[in-house]
Structure formats: C-alpha cells, structure tokens
Amino acid sequence: MRVGLFVPCYVDAFEPEVGIATLELLERFGLKVEYPYDQTCCGQPMTNTGCHAEAAATEALFVKNFSGFDYIVAPSGSCVHQVREHLTAIPQTEEVKAVRSRTFELVEFLHDVLKIEELPWAEFPHRVAYHNNCNSLRGIHHARPSELNKPFFSKPLDLLKKVKGIEIVDLARPDECCGFGGTFSVFEPAVSAKMGYDKVTDQSKAGADYVVSADSSCLMHQKGCAERLGLPTKYIHIAQVLNGAAA
Amino acid sequence: MSAEGMNPQKDPLHPQVQPPTDESARGQDGQRLQHAEGASKPVRAPAAREAQPRGAKIRGDRPIDQAEAAERFIAAPLHQAAHDARLWDVRKKRDAATQAIPEWEELRELASQIKTHTLANLDTYLEQFEAAAKANGVHVHWAADGAEHNRIVHGILRDHGAKTLIKSKSMLTEECGFRHYMAANGIDIIETDLGERIQQLDDEEPSHVVMPAVHKTRIDVAEVFARTLGTDPTNDDAHYLAESQRVTTRPLILQADAGMTGCNFAIAETGTVVTCTNEGNADLSGNVPKLQIHSIGIEKLIPRIEHLGVFIRVLARSALGSTITQYTSHFRAPRKGTEMHMVLVDNGRSARLGMEEFWTSLKCIRCGACMNTCPVYRRSGGLSYGATYSGPIGLIIDPTFNKRKYSTLPFSSTMNGSCTNVCPVKINIHEQIFAWRKVLAEEHQIPLLKQGMMKAAGAVLSRPAAYRAAIGAADSALKALPRFAVYNPANTWGKKREMPETPKQSFHAWYKQNRMKGGAK
C-alpha cells in the first residue's frame, strides 16, 4: 500500500509538529509513508474566493505530486474537502479523479480505512473540548451535525476515547463555526474575530484546558483569539494527541 | 391617545401572561408550553441605552459593503448580543422540534421533492391555478416584474376609489418596493404584522423574513413608538408597547378600504392562497375590507391540497421551533358582496428557473431557519446585507436581482454548511454560495485587489521553488498568515487576533534534515 503524506501549506509553515505527528502516527501502524517533496497547497484559498482559473496550476501540481498513491492522507479536513469536492479547475482525467477519490483526512483514514482499535502510547490527562471543523463535520462527514435528526456518531471522538485519561467537555454551541472561513478571516475581519471570541469563550466556560481539532487553520484562528482575550486555553491538533503528545 | 396613563407595573394589561419564571404554564404532557413566542426565553432589553446600529449604506448600484455594516453592528454590543441570543434560542427550539418527530428527515426530502416537481412543471400548475381561481370567482392578474405588480394593485385600488390599504407581511411586496410606490401615489398602507409595523413606523426594511424587527431591542421599539405613536418613551414593557400599537392600529384596520396579503402556499388544484401567521393579521387583512388582494410569487405553487400538510409540518418547526403557526388561513373565493384579486408575480423567478446552478433556490419557503443558524447573520444583523433577503438565502437570491450591487454578498459567509442542514426543502445553500463566488469572479464582479491577490497566491503556490522561497522567508511577510494575507497590506489578521509564532523550521525543512539524510534533491 503506497501512502502519500500531504502536509498543507499552513501546517508546513506554522505547525510543522502536526505534520511530524501525522507521519509518526501513520508509521506506528506499520505504514511506509512517502512525502512528495514538491508539494505546496491544495488550491483552496483561490477556489474559496471564486478564483478557479487562478487555482488551476496549483491543482495540477497537487495531482502531479500525488498521482499513483493508493491513499493520500492529510491532517486537515478543510484541504481534503477541497480536493475531494472542489478540485475542478483542471480537466477531470482518470488520473485527477483517482487522486481526488483517494485523498483522506487523517481521522477518517484511521477510523474507516485502518480501523484502528487501540492507541496504547496515547495518554492525555486533560479536559478537552473537541472542535469540529465545518468542512470536516458537514463536508466529509466526521460526525453527525447537530442540525440533523440522525443517529449520533463522531469519528474523532471515537478515536479520542482510546486515549488514556482524556476527559471530553461539552460546548454550549457544539457545531458553531469559529469564524475562520479561509479568506473570510481576512476579508471580513470584524465578524470573523467576533465569532472566534465567542467560540473561545464557550470553550473556556466549558472548562476546557485544551481544544483539540482535526484542522490547524481553525486552531490557529482560535488560538489567536484566545490569546487576544487573555484566556489560558491551549490548542492542539488531534494528530499530536493520538500520537502520544504529553501536551 | 388611549395608551396614555397605562402603568404596566400597577395595571398589567395581560395578567394572564405569565412571566418566564412561572412554571405553571404547562401543557397536558407536563412540558412547558412550546408554542412559538410563548415558549421563548424573553431576551431582556439592556438597561443601558445604546443607539440602534443602522444597516448597510446604499449607494445606487455600487456593491454593498456588508462587512462595514456588520462591523458597526458588532460595535453595538448590547444589540449584537441580544440579536445573537434571540436567534440562537430559536435555532435550539428548532432542533428540539425537529428531533421530536422521527420522520423529520423524510419530511424534508418529501418537501424538497414536491417543490422540485412543481418547479419543473410550473407552467402547467400556474395555468391550473389560474383556471381554478377564476372558477372560484377570483380576478387573476399576471405581473412580469415588481413595477407591473405595483401598477396592477394601484389600478385595482383606483378602480374602487380605495385610499387606505391594510396588509400583512409579505417579502414579495418588499421585493417590489410596494410601500414606497404606494406612498408616492397617495395610498396609505398600514402593516398589520407587529414586527413589520415597527419597521414601517421606523422607515426601515425588515431585517429577517419571519421576525422583521429582531435586530431591535425593546428600548428601540419604545423610542420608535414614542416618536410615531406618542407612547411614553421611558416605558419599554413589551405588553404596553404591543397594546399601544394595537389600540392605535385597530381603528385603521376596521376603516381600511382594501386589504392585502402575501402568500405562503398557492394550491394549484383549488386556486387557494394559504397564509401562515402567528398574529392572525393575514385574516384581518383579507377578511375585514370588502376588497382583498393577494400577491403571489409564482414559486409559491404546490400541486394539491394534500401536499400542504407536509409544508405546514416543516414550516413552523423550522421557523420558530413551534409545531404549527397559530393561524393557517385558506383564501379561496370572495365573500358575498366582496371582490377578490390575485396577482401572480414573476419578478425574476422564471429567469432564475433557467439558471442551472441556482434554480433550486426557488424551493425556498421563507422560514428563516438558515438565517437563525447562520453565525455570520447572527453577528451582523439582517440590515447589513442591504437587500430584501438577508442571511444565507439572501446571498444566493439577491445576486439574481442585481449582480453588481449584491456581488459582495456571497463572500459574507464562512460556508460552514449549517444553513443547508436546517433548510426544510433541502436547498444546497452553502454550495450555491460557493458557486456564486465562481460566477462573480469569472464575470469580474469581485474587487480587482482580491482577484490580484489570488492570482499572486496561485502563482506562488503552483511553483515549488517560489513557494519554498516564500516559506523560507519565515520572519518576513509570511508571519502574516493565512498566507493569502501576505498580500494584504492592512494585516487584518493581526488587528483582531494574535499572530501565530513562527516555528524554528518548516515541516519541509524538518523532513529534509531528519528523513532525507544525504538524499535531498
């Protein structure tokens, strides 16, 4: 099984330890993981802004880098959603379609593909609020969104339950968007920040020491908001927790 | 002024209305009553005064600056907090109401299919409706656009020498600019929906399709009523305000020359107009005067009366979290000695029906659930959109009316998708927002600066060497992540949030150092 690791641009630049944790975690399950060296980005900043033509070359590069893998795994629901649903600025050849359908977010790869049963190395004795990134939640179906009258399920919480000592706390508004929204955070800063402040306040009131998520972009925004409000909450990617980060 | 001298503390107008702390108001099942407003946790008007933030600045066809208006709304924290809390409360009630019936998701699917079918055969159903209505003795009119609608209604009023018109809330008439047109033609209009009446008295558009004045606090309403109805400006008791409005408006209703309603559902097989209200005001508007007019958007059609039940079940649950609206009124034929008119209005709908990616927005039944759940809407206020329709549904409908003016609206979203999940007719709202962005960018209806930034970002992100060089310059421009912000001189990230720390090395550099010893390309 050929597994390619996709480290999204902002993880590469700002949260390299998330990429390292993802790589090490996959290797713990005996996988030989390859890292295509010329990778950059999935094209999301451009397509989210409507600029598909401007995203085409980046999308083509993504496909070139990841063609031929059985699975492409990335620690970001948002980027995986882009690849799977919106990588459409280039002609949809068999190669492109194969890359798109073989791209998985880390949580769903562990939960649905590897079907892992235990994480003996993982221990995280903290009060944790889980943040469902909106694309992970409603785009690639990590969990049952609170709007739907369907049976509850949550892949990330299933995985976190295998971590020793962890305590999950509930938020008052569990699925409320944190306001990052990609380019939204830059073009609509007032609303974006207000949503972020409300989100981190909710987490703090719930008594969370840590907020865990499958998406670094939301975490980066929330961390920036929490620090601005002077809240002590810490933010960490689920890959790090599952890989046995001691915090 | 009969409102004068009322003291709600000493003489409660409605002693039967229990305060929210009262636990006696329970239904047969022992649960606290869950009917619409009756079950809502009243959001206390703030004690401190704060000027009501006003909506987006309208400058002809120039693109609406929603972000600017939203920033002003957020800068009024008492209003913003009350607005957010009120609508989140409705969203929670909606969740409870929908989870109380196991067949909820099937109902949504059924509602969606009925609407899809009707829209796909709209010509047939419209002709059927017209024939049935005529057979009922109704005068049926067709209006291609808002202007024609206004002229037709004005013509009907003129023919009857009518000078005053009472009407219930109708988003269609808002689309048509009806109130302004009639004011210019010397017709007095009295809105009979309380929220809409407040907005009319304040000369402001409705900010929400179901709760037109939800952006106002009680203090704001007290101020408007004091100014326009002569009430006590210091008395913001809800019962006092509602009663004052009632006392001043009732005589106008009873004396009106003509009445008008919008339409929630138009039944093709029977030619019936169905309205759903909680105040019974559509009944007053339709049944009191001898001349009654119903304005109907052509997408309101459903084939048969048996389909109505599906929509009645989803509408109020989605809108307010109640099982049904207090009034579901069927208007079919004129009462003896009266005249009944129905105006079927297109106003861009048939053009929208031809838009491959956007036509399903015509399924909308105007419940407002997408607005209540929208985190951007709750923090911006409906007037920040500067359009008839605000919130998620507005983002995908408004550009069909004016692509330039509303070109910015599809960007006032994080595309989180909650709107799509609450939509009772399963409109893929957030996907249409995404699709609109593409259309607007292709047609150069987005700012040159924004498109330029994306072009520059695309150039860097598609060239590994250029990308590496940018990442390498870690302590310079790239600190301003997200990376597209690199090209944004204003650093809007850092104004409101702390910047992320720059790590010692990128993942790429770590990988090269630790995993490619001697083997780096």
From TrEMBL, chain A:
Molecular-function GO terms, alphabetical: oxidoreductase activity
Pfam family, one: CCG
Domain Cysteine-rich: 3-83, 128-221
Gene Ontology CC terms: cytosol
Name of the featured protein: Glycolate oxidase
Species for this entry: Methylobacterium brachythecii
Lineage of producing organism: Bacteria, Pseudomonadati, Pseudomonadota, Alphaproteobacteria, Hyphomicrobiales
Automatic annotation (TrEMBL), chain B:
Domain of life of the organism encoding this protein: Bacteria
This protein's name: 4Fe-4S ferredoxin
Cross-referenced Pfam families: Fer4_8, LUD_dom, LutB_C
4Fe-4S ferredoxin-type domain residues: 355-376
GO molecular function: 4 iron, 4 sulfur cluster binding; metal ion binding
Keyword rRNA processing included in the entry's annotation: no
Listed SUPFAM superfamilies: alpha-helical ferredoxin, NagB/RpiA/CoA transferase-like
Keywords assigned by UniProt, alphabetized: 4Fe-4S, Electron transport, Iron, Iron-sulfur, Metal-binding, Repeat, Transport
Annotated spans, Disordered: 1-61
Keyword Repeat included in the entry's annotation: yes
GO biological process: lactate metabolic process
InterPro entries, per database record: 4Fe4S_Fe-S-bd (IPR017896), 4Fe4S_Fe_S_CS (IPR017900), FTHF_cligase-like_sf (IPR024185), Helical_ferredxn (IPR009051), LUD_dom (IPR003741), LutB/LldF (IPR004452), LutB_C (IPR024569), NagB/RpiA_transferase-like (IPR037171)
PROSITE patterns recorded: 4FE4S_FER_1, 4FE4S_FER_2
